[in-house]
């Protein structure tokens, strides 16, 4: 729009400058005319009166020319201003129409929203009216209940000793027992195992599968605390490869070493 109304700006500037020049020429014309009339009344020489008449005539022509210029500039200014004002009016009308359309669309949206809110509200009221206390309690009972059938009576059942004993039977614990040695803990569960192992081994080391003379077997002596009494053994007899164990059961060097490290 600024580019379209550029000639109007020129017309405004032109009429402003012409108006100023017209005002100055009018003042000059009035001054020269008054000066000529004064000289004529005062009886000045004809030469001075003629000079004043020439200046007055020139001022009159200048003033008339600016009047004509002003008329032309005024016509052009009015035309340009009318076109520009119409252009601005069209812009404002389009803007107002656009804003009215936006407001109308907004009002329609608000109205539709209120209608939908009213429908939802009416549906909500209908649902509340159609919902009774009995139905709510019934739904709660169905969701939280465990069933509609009552459980039957509970009868007395005889105890089955075989099944009860089998279920309560403790598991046996495997123990590692050394013949002739007694532990402080679990004496009840390991005592029979130690006695049985001592009677079976008769002082023989593990892994020995030879014949054992039960009657002449030399059973190790046990002190009051249950530990075997180590026999006095000569170191030469121990280190000798052909030596035999005379303090135990007549076995070889392996039996002697067993009795030495595991009394």
Automatic annotation (TrEMBL):
Keywords: Coiled coil. The keyword Oxidoreductase does not apply. It comes from the Eukaryota. InterPro entries: AH/BAR_dom_sf, F_BAR_dom, GMIP/FCHO2-like_FCH. Transmembrane segments: none annotated. Gene3D superfamilies: Arfaptin homology (AH) domain/BAR domain. Residues 1-136 form the F-BAR domain. Residues 36-55, 169-206 are annotated as: Disordered. This is F-BAR domain only protein 2. It comes from Characodon lateralis.
């Amino acid at each position: 729009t600024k580019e379209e109304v550029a000639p109007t700006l020129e017309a405004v500037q032109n009429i402003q400058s012409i108006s100023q020049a017209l005002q100055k020429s009018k003042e000059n014309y009035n001054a020269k005319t008054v000066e000529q009339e004064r000289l004529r009344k005062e009886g000045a020489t004809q030469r001075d009166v003629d000079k004043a008449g020439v200046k007055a005539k020139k001022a009159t022509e200048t003033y008339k020319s600016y009047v004509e210029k002003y008329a032309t500039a005024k016509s052009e200014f009015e035309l340009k201003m009318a076109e520009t004002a119409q252009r601005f009016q069209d812009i404002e009308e389009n803007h107002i129409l656009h804003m009215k359309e936006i407001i109308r669309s907004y009002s329609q949206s608000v109205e539709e929203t209120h209608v939908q809110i009213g429908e939802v509200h009416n549906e909500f009221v209908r649902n509340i009216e159609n919902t009774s206390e009995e139905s709510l309690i019934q739904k709660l009972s169905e969701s939280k209940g465990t069933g509609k059938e009552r459980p039957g009576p509970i009868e007395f059942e005889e105890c089955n000793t075989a099944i009860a004993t089998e279920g309560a039977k403790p598991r046996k614990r495997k123990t590692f027992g050394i013949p002739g040695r007694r532990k402080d803990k679990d004496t009840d569960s390991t005592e029979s195992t130690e006695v049985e192992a001592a009677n079976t081994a008769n002082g023989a080391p593990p892994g020995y599968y030879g014949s054992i003379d039960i009657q002449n077997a030399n059973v190790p002596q046990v002190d009051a605390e249950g530990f075997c009494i180590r026999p006095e053994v000569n170191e030469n007899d121990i280190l000798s490869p052909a030596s035999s164990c005379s303090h135990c059961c007549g076995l070889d060097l392996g039996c002697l070493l067993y009795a030495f490290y595991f009394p």
